[in-house]
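Crash report, auto-generated. Payload:
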Amino acid sequence: MKKIVPFGGISLATVALFFVYSCLVRSGSTDLALQAQLVWGTNNDKPDDPKLKEVDAKVTERLRTALKWKNYFEVNRQNFIVRAGTPKKVKMSDHCEIEVENFGNSSIEVKLYGKGKMVVKKTQKIKPGELLIFAGDDKNDTAWFVVLSQSEK
Amino acid sequence: MINHETELRLQAYLDGELSPGEAKAVEDFSNSDADARSLFEELKLTKSLLAENELEVRLPESRGFYWSKIQRQIEREEKGQASEQAETAATSWWLRFLAPAAALVALAVLVVVALRAPKGAEALVALDDSHEIETPLEETSSFSFQSEAAGMTVVWVDSHRE
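Recovered output after restart:
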């Protein structure tokens, strides 16, 4: 018996439309401007290295609300752009490096390397104003931080 | 021992269906044959029991009116069944059409609503909003925590140093 409406065709078309739309949404945003800061956290008032400057007051305040250290000093800062589908490696120090991949729609994958070995990999969205922080403890009750955020335009 | 033909004749005699001559012959036979007599008495008793215990049904209206009522009832039920079948056929056609159509519309709406959020707002379903963490080194472990108040996610890496 001939079908009045070709439901099979409609269903197939809808599924195809869904995937095409998903792909378009996923690839909606292309370049992502990011900032990475290597930060040293301590309870001392002054850093061991006098050349280090204090982290921006707003960021410091936010770090203090969630972390135990009193003062945060910036060791290095990198601004960079990550194109969708092209991972970007950024050197933060002699021993620390990050690799960021842009999945589109503000979704990123960050690989943290220590002495050339991948230590941790994290995938998540990073919205404007939000911070993605990788951290670990250091000697004398201090800690290191790699603070990632979207660059302010 | 009496045969089936004789049994039938005895029954017919009891029901008064035989001619006087035949009736006389059957009566004589039953009087002379013990089996025939016994069967006749049994049939007679059965008939009397049925006649006495059968309920007499009296129609509340005339016979013609009674049967015409039954005929009308049958016709009415036939018409009802026909219209019900037609209605069922129409309903099932629409169901066949509407069910997949509604499913497709619902799917389309879900796709649009889920993936198309207003500017600055979070989509209801973000396909790529995955939060995965992986620590490949054995001597290293990690965990992450999120502070909504500070708007930050912290991935804490523990290298198990002594």
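Post-recovery validation: The mean pLDDT of chain A is 85.
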